[in-house]
Amino acid sequence: MAFETEPLFRDDPYQRDCEAEIVAVNDRGGIILNRTIFYATSGGQPGDVGRLVVDHNALPIATTVYGEGKAEIVHVPAEQERLPGAGAAVRAEIDWGRRHKHMRMHTALHLMCSLIPYPVTGGSIGAEESRLDFDIAEAGAIDKDDLTERLNALVTADHAIATRWISDEELADNPDLVRTMSVKPPTGSGRVRLVAIGADGAVDLQPCGGTHVRSTAEIGRLMVTKIEKKGRQNRRVRLALAEGQ
To answer: Rounded to whole angstroms, how far apart are CA atoms 74 and 89?
Structure first.
């Protein structure tokens, strides 16, 4: 039986805790809440870690994933002893420092997409380093120092970031919005969430279900650390937050 978890992180990625109720514990010990601020692993962004506080006892959460379908969010405990049961009231608390770095890095990768006009073949978001892979035939198509400079120009320009929703039909009519070849935006629910950077998405506009900061200035200084050849037409671009950021 699949359950539905209300994804509070989708409307407010800055919310650090919430009150919730356990609706089920699955056969692998995963805890399903009726609502959560824990982001579930998807789109290259790792699931949140943190803790669930039940009757003044803290249960560490090692990761968060989707369960049956895209409506059920499962909190995976770091330990399987003394798991609370269905009906228990909990306070869910994320590791905010880790989440905020993921938000900054995820937005930074969208900026990279806006500067590299090639299809994205893969990617991964980390708190310390992230990457995107591009379908590029020319070996010298990207210059590391030039890309770093242009990324930081977008950061310091303090572009606002907003989200809005369009229908599945609108997305089908605008296929150029989809930049990723490996991960397609989820459809079937009737609507798709767009992340817009700059006025009306002037800097970047693409479907995304991840968590993002409110403005590019919040990202902080970035460094393109490495550009690697991964196959005949695949170039991997690695990105990090500047030291101390």
So the answer is: 16
Do the domain assignments include residue 235?
yes
Asked if residue 13 and residue 117 are part of one domain, the reply reads: no
pLDDT one-digit tens code per residue, 104-127: 999 999 999 999 989 999 999 999
C-alpha–C-alpha distance, residues 81 and 50, integer Å? 17
In terms of domains, do 230 and 140 share one? yes
Residue 186's pLDDT is 61
Neighbouring C-beta atoms of residue 41, cutoff 10 Å:
16
Total domains in the fold of the chain: 2
Residue 14's CB: how many other CB atoms inside 10 A?
Answer: 13
Residues 168 and 55 in one domain: no
| Range 1-11 average pLDDT | 90
Q: Give per-residue pLDDT as tens, 215-228.
A: 999 999 999 999 99
DSSP class of residue 113 equals H
Where in the sequence is the domain holding 19, given as residue range(s)? 6-94
The number of beta carbons lying within 10 Å of the beta carbon of residue 188 is 9
Does the pTM surpass 0.85? The reply is yes
Can you state the angle between helices 96-115 and 144-156, rounded to 10 degrees?
120
